Amino acid sequence: MKPVNHICIALLLAVSISSCLKRDSVFDATDSPAVVEFSNTGTPTIDTFPLFKSDVGALKEGDSSTFNINIAYVSASGAPNDVVVSLSVNEADLTAFNKAAGTSYSMPPADVYTLPAQAVIHKGANEVQIKVPVKRTAAFNYDASYAIPVKITSAGGAGISSAFGQAIYAFSARNSYDGAFTVTGTFYDSTLGTVATAEYPKHINLITDGARGAGYYDADAASYRYTFYNNGGASYYGNFAPIFHFDDNGNVTSVTNYYGQGTNSNLRSAALDPSGINKMTFDSEGKPDKLEVSYYMIQSGKIRLTIKETFTYTGER
Which Pfam families does the protein's record reference (predicted)? Predict the structure, then answer.
């Protein structure tokens, strides 16, 4: 198939990037002419624009992954012959989608992915799945929300679905520090003193925040927060959760607050404790192994919490 370089794509596999095929077409195949349509799992976000999303996993610079686009031949029987389906991109569709849905998707750089210009549904088949390579190049921006409007422009004589003949494919990638961790550690609250005691071990997800940042998400609390015991009762510090920022060697270079550096109602910010090890190590495959980090919660300009933690990687989140 002849490739066309464009940008961004995504499957909304709410569970998996393997893209289950959507079997209940908008057409009744028993009494309608054959049509071709996108058939990834998902539903229209707005009229005529289904949105499919996918997470392509953790990528280091230069790494590649793939996601799937599924195209169905909807009829009472399979394709009567090989059906060549042509695909194109219309940036105006993305602009229209953003305006209607209130989103801010953008087209990714052209070297980030390669979209096949055609797909072939073979004789007797009801669908075809094509894989779209995604590469983390130097131009990849983790702070952008990438998506591409893909359109079926011809279907080898079959009709093209009015509802699923065009779709928005969005994708995101995870950085090298992202994952699920078991966390142990110590902390001291200079305001509450010994009344405040540590709640460890914790189950923390470090969630991609830009190319070299990872936010502290408590998987048990389902929130960005730091939990502790206040006089024996479960509690947490409002408007506080660290974001760790790394250099290319895994060193923690700074810590900021997910809820803003002193701009929240509690006037809380975060800062790195330079006396700590403050480094993430990786295994032979480049996956996270362990993070040892020390940091502070600062409130109204003064250090309130002193925290020292060890994160042990347990797998992808």
Answer: BT_3987-like_N
